[in-house]
Design brief:
about 325 residues; Pseudouridine synthase; Archaeosine Trna-guanine Transglycosylase, Chain: A, domain 4; 9-stranded mixed beta sheet; 5-stranded mixed beta sheet; 9 helices
Amino acid sequence: MLTCKQEIGLRISDFSMDGILNINKPPGMTSYAVVAAVKRLSHERHVGHAGTLDPAATGVLPVCLGKATRLSEFVMESPKTYRGEVELGITTDTGDAPGTIVRRADASSIDREALVSTLGAFRGGIQQTPPMYSALKHHGSPLYKLARAGITVERPTRPVQIYALELLSWQPPVAEIEVTCSRGTYMRSLAQDIGEALGCGGHLRSLTRTRCGPFDLEDSISLEELEAATAEGRLFEILHPLDTVLLRWPALIAGAQMADDIRHGRPVSAVIEERDSGSVSLPKAGDHCRAYTLDGCFLGVLRFNAEREEWQPEKVFV
């Protein structure tokens, strides 16, 4: 079947590319370089990733195009799952394999039982110190720039959630682990902290993100596959819809009048059950919901105001 591009002779750049790509980031490439590649291939001006991966890391990197960039924060808030290798006995300045070795220690006494016990202490809510080699800023300067200049500054710890942490394999001195965690978790810091807790230090030897919110590694595409899809006019086929990242929320189905209210930023009462212009399905109270018209068109994101018992439009897509 001919695509719109083929039928009416328009370029991809003549369309608004609104959606999310599930990119499998290759090793040795920055997340920003992936964004640049997507921007070049799609001809879409508004492109951004939803959660940085270190250059050495691979795996799921959601890339938002067009109007989807307004929803990137909700992708970043989603839980993420990683598979990584922690090499014990070697500590690096960056916390991962590309870094410079700063300490070696004997890890030969570490057995599987000690490792499993230590991993258990990192499940749940923990405090984590961000690494110096990170994009966090100190008085306006990224920490990694200070680190490259030989400057180390105090970084306040911050709470993160480790929802799951399992040992997949143990080939001394390398432990392969799988981690599901909250936004803001640094896997390099986790690897270092595990090594320190075992008394021998350690670093993250390799890392793959296997899941980010609704996006799974098995369904991701390589940049080569993306390039082929754009060359064949199939880019629209691999774009995930805007609301893909919101499906965990309840849905509000609005009649014509309510849909008009939402489009114009007017709040919707949570106690109204129907409107004269059409039936309405209202979710129960919660933090957020997604809104649709009666014919299934996505309207936007609404936030619940408990004090006023109403849903306030937060991000509207006309």
